[in-house]
């Protein structure tokens, strides 16, 4: 009964959006996909995968497909702050575009500094015009940390001398929904790492509006597009975890679904890169994998058109979707629980710090993971050899 009610509600939501005019009448997403060689079958397979990713029943696939097809009705403003543009690069690849990246190529992307042709005063004018024209209706996506306070001059934009912080505040004020794309925008990222000379902060720190965080360095394109489609489908915020990350994408730890989890449970570990354990695909915890402390769906989505992901390639997770990971997760090739380091809480081990600032919701069992790993290894029959 609840499923039917939800289906009907989402159907009505999409019907109302479908009545909105296209920004560009000459192009439609279905037409562009066809021109790029994607068949209707390919598109529906993609919609089926996204439906599963969003934890919706299989019979909702046509609704997800429709949401993608009409996504060009919703204007999007994408701002770049202090960042490397890696999040945009993750999404907008030109050499082998996926359906995800093509959708973002042809939605109503009103402003995106990396993609648009205009520059200088024309770019500033375009941003102001887009905010005013679509006031209260546009989706704001922000990439990069925000230099703030007395250090906001580190990001001064355009001839008017406005700071990135002011641009972000102005854009947030009139947005219908706000997404922080990538770890820098979500939590400050490398810019906010100690000693943080630019005073970089998360987007949520410069606005009193709710910000949906889509962290990762970079995040999966599926998580970016999935968050957009969730908003198109529901018109509301998704269920969020304590760090305002969508639960459908960040509800489980890397460790929970890791392809090497069986080796962890069996006490089979890579002791150093290149050893026999590494060749056999053993668990990477002892060479620094932060999978037990990191919430993300990398093992399901992977990267580069689902080709691989860091753990499959032989390097542990570095915890890039967690708050303050540059300060709390490094060195990236040392186990978390085995060391002490200086933090704002003093010389604490990472697990103790995790308990205070919530780097992972695993905190209460963090020490147990290390102990389990050590005991399992000690008991392993191969040790006797």
TrEMBL record:
Pfam families, alphabetically? NiFe_hyd_SSU_C (PF14720), Oxidored_q6 (PF01058), TAT_signal (PF10518)
The listed locations are: Cell envelope
Which biological processes are named by the entry's GO terms?
Answer: anaerobic respiration
Which GO-annotated molecular functions does the record name? 3 iron, 4 sulfur cluster binding; 4 iron, 4 sulfur cluster binding; electron transfer activity; ferredoxin hydrogenase activity; metal ion binding
Highest taxon listed in the record's lineage: Bacteria
This chain's source organism reads: Halarcobacter anaerophilus
Sorted alphabetically, which Gene3D superfamilies does this protein's record hold? Cytochrome-c3 hydrogenase, C-terminal domain, NADH:ubiquinone oxidoreductase-like, 20kDa subunit
Residues the record lists as binding [4Fe-4S] cluster 2: 255, 258, 283, 289
Specify which residues bind [4Fe-4S] cluster 1 according to the UniProt entry for this protein. 84, 87, 184, 217
The residues the record assigns to binding [3Fe-4S] cluster are: 298, 317, 320
GO cellular component terms given for this protein: [Ni-Fe] hydrogenase complex; cell envelope; ferredoxin hydrogenase complex; membrane
Record domain Cytochrome-c3 hydrogenase C-terminal: where? 250-332
Q: What is this protein called?
A: Ni/Fe hydrogenase
Q: What is its main location?
A: other
């Amino acid at each position: 009964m609840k499923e039917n009610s939800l289906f009907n509600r989402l159907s009505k939501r999409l019907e109302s959006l479908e009545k909105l005019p296209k920004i560009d009448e000459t192009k439609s997403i279905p037409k562009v996909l066809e021109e790029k060689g994607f068949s209707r079958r390919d598109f529906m397979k993609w919609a089926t995968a996204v439906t599963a990713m969003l934890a919706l029943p299989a019979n909702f696939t046509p609704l997800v497909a429709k949401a993608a097809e009409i996504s060009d009705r919703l204007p999007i403003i994408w701002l770049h702050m202090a960042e490397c543009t890696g999040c945009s690069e993750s999404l907008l690849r030109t050499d082998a575009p996926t359906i995800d990246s093509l959708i973002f190529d042809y939605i109503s992307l009103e402003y995106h500094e990396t993609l648009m042709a205009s520059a200088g005063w024309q770019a500033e004018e375009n941003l102001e015009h887009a905010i005013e024209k679509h006031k209260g209706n546009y989706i704001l996506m922000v990439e990069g940390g925000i230099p703030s306070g007395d250090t906001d001059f580190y990001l001064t934009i355009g001839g008017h001398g406005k700071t990135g912080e002011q641009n972000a505040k102005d854009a947030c004020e009139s947005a219908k929904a706000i997404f922080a794309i990538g770890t820098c925008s979500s939590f400050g990222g490398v810019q906010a790492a100690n000693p943080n000379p630019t005073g970089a902060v998360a987007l949520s720190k410069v606005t009193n509006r709710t910000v949906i965080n889509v962290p990762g360095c970079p995040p999966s394109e599926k998580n970016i597009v999935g968050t957009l489609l969730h908003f198109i489908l529901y018109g509301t915020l998704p269920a969020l975890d304590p760090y305002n990350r969508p639960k459908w994408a960040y509800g489980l730890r890397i460790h929970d679904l890791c392809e090497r989890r069986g080796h962890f449970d069996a006490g089979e570990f890579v002791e150093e890169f290149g050893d026999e354990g590494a060749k056999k695909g053993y668990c990477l915890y002892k060479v620094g994998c932060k999978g037990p402390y990191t919430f993300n769906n990398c093992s399901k989505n992977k990267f580069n058109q689902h080709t691989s992901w860091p753990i499959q390639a032989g390097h542990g997770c570095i915890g890039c979707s967690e708050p303050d990971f540059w300060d709390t997760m490094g060195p990236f090739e040392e186990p978390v629980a085995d060391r002490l380091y200086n933090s704002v809480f003093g010389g604490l081990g990472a697990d103790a710090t995790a308990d205070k600032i919530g780097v992972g919701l695993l905190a209460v069992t963090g020490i147990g993971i290390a102990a389990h790993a050590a005991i399992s290894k000690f008991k392993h029959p191969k040790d006797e050899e």
